[in-house]
Each structure stands twice: as C-alpha cells, then as structure tokens.
C-alpha cells in the first residue's frame, strides 16, 4: 500500500481591522509602551469588532486559504479548528465555519490546546488524512482572546490579540508527494501546570465565561525548556537540524522567548519569522498568521522546510516539521 503524506495546498489569514497600540493601553492602564516592548516585543494587537465572533475571523481566513490553494470549499471534507475562545460552548465553532462555507459533507470539530492548538490541530488532521479517512482538510487556528481578558489586569491584557489563520492540507500518495508535506509532529502536555495559565470560568465550574489568569514569570520559566525539548524530538525523529531547516515559525507569545529558544537551538536569527510585534499573542492563530505573512512576502518558498513550535496553557507544547 502506498503511504500518504499531507501536503500543504494553501494558507490564509485574517486580522480584525481595529488596532490597539501600546500607547492607547498606557492611557487607560498603569503601563507604558517602553515596558511592553522591552518585556514582550509587542507594539500593537488587533481586536475584533463588537459582534465579530471567532467563527467570522476563521471563515475569512479559511476562504483566503482556499483561494490560495485554488480550491472551492466543496473540496474540503475535514475541518479541525483550534480555539480556546469558541463562539459558544457548543456546537463547535468548526461546525459554524463548515456551514458558512457551504460544506455539507465530511466532519468538522474543534480542538482545545490553547496556544499549542494549531500544531495539535495540524497533527490531528495529518493523522486523519494519512489513514485515508479524509482527502482534504482545513486546519484553522482562530481566537478572540479580547473577550476573555481582564482589561483591568495590566499583567495579562497587554499581551494578547485577536486573529485567525488557516491552512489547506491534502492527502497525496507518498511517491507523488516526494519530500513535501507534514514530515513529523510531536505533541506534549502536563496538566500539573494547569493553574499557571488558565481561565477562571467555564460551563461546568462557574457557569460563566471567566477571565484569563496567568503566572507570567512561571510560564516564562518553563517555556524555553519545553519548546527546545520538543524541537529536539522533531530533529531526532527526522535527522533534520537547525542548519537544515529553512524557516523557524514559532508561536508568537513573547519576543524574548522566541529569541532565547532560537539561540539555544542555534537557529540563525535570519531564519526566525516574528510577528508578535504587530499581532501580539493570538494563541492558536499565531502560527498560521505568521506562516501566511512569511509565505506572502516570499520568504517561504515551495520545497522549504519549516519548523513550527508552540507552548501554552495546560501546559501543552508541540512541534512540527513541514516541507512546503
Ligand atoms: O502563549 C502562552 C504562553 N504565555 C507566555 O509565553 C507568557 C510568558 N510570560 C511572559 O511573557 C512574561 O513573564 C511577561 C511578559 C508576562 C512578564 O514579563 P516578566 O519579565 O516576567 O515580568 P514580571 O512578571 O516579572 O513583572 C516585572 C514587573 C512587576 O513589578 P514588580 O513586582 O517588579 O514591582 C510587574 O508588576 O513588571 C510589572 N508589570 C508591568 N509593568 C508595566 C507587569 N505587567 C506590567 C505592565 N506594565 N503591563
């Protein structure tokens, strides 16, 4: 039997129109542009308009990914949507996106791994395609973290933003795919850390939506080690290395975490794709948003080997190697 590989067909993203700068935040909070830039690298973030739900962001990103792939929505038979900010407790936001795209076959479901969501979703969709169960998947990361932030809490609200990114992957027989496609994925979690980054509400606990709470210093302390470990796993599984990858597209939480991880792995700074300055931390959306930027500006070319990495609430952490 010919093995199957999940090949990237298209990428797309969407950022809400409204931009909130550090200067604007510092007018209503005890913070400053200088503190935020120095500690995080963030200069601005996008915030969804009133009434603009996660599914609305996801739908536009998905349409753009489909256009990039040259495919109609009817080509898709699987949607895996990573989000920690669904439109409703249920149904899955993926089901809303499926309906709005006019897709009436296959399956659509949400996946919850917070900031690691996109890599978890990519690994999940890849595994489903490789079984032969589905042919083409939309892998989406979409968030409206502005809705779960405590806008009075300067230690968290300055960090996050809203946005969505989507990737179309297709099951292709390995002999046709060649080296292209999802090469390897590595997923990890450790629930002992769940209260270091969490939301203090939910349907079964408080019957409220709740607000994001984070022990930032604790998350920071674990981040670089977890990120570099799971990347070493990807390198060990494939024989690839910091030298052989073309691009490093990490989760965009904090410029200092990105730089320290790249440095520890000996990844050359010019290979690192950074969008945290303009997007802030968009959780599950950050990687596909950054991929779209680097693909559209001509950095990521066909055949390039791209390293993805994320770490977030749970804790969850994950890596993937994708040959475009
Ligand atoms: O995507 C999911 C993963 N999440 C992350 O990766 C976030 C990880 N953590 C971080 O990125 C960093 O820990 C933060 C950016 C959240 C904080 O940076 P830090 O260098 O760890 O600062 P800190 O928490 O140690 O706070 C230093 C000081 C404190 O004041 P004192 O106690 O030293 O007087 C804070 O109260 O900075 C203060 N502070 C602020 N000052 C101005 C905290 N937030 C702000 C703020 N503006 N917005």
Short description:
This protein has 324 residues and is of the alpha/beta class. Helices cover 34% and strands 26% of the residues.
Keywords:
single chain; 324 residues; alpha/beta; Peroxisomal Thiolase, Chain A, domain 1; 2 domains; 5-stranded mixed beta sheet; 4-stranded mixed beta sheet; 11 helices; 34% helix; 26% strand; globular; binds oxa(dethia)-CoA
Structure notes:
The two termini are 24 Å apart. With 324 residues, the protein is of the alpha/beta class. The model has no long low-confidence stretch (mean pLDDT 98). It folds into 2 domains: 4-177, 3-Layer(aba) Sandwich (Peroxisomal Thiolase, Chain A, domain 1); 181-323, Thiolase/Chalcone synthase (Peroxisomal Thiolase, Chain A, domain 1, 3-Layer(aba) Sandwich). It has helices at 22-28, 33-40, 54-69, 93-100, 117-130, 154-157, 174-177, 216-238, 255-264, 276-279, 286-296, and strands at residues 4-14, 18-21, 44-47, 78-82, 107-111, 136-144, 162-173, 181-189, 197-199, 212-214, 247-250, 305-312, 316-323. Strands 1-7-6-4-5 form a 5-stranded mixed sheet, sandwiched between helices. Bound molecules: oxa(dethia)-CoA (UT7). Oxa(dethia)-CoA binds next to helix 2, helix 6 and helix 8.
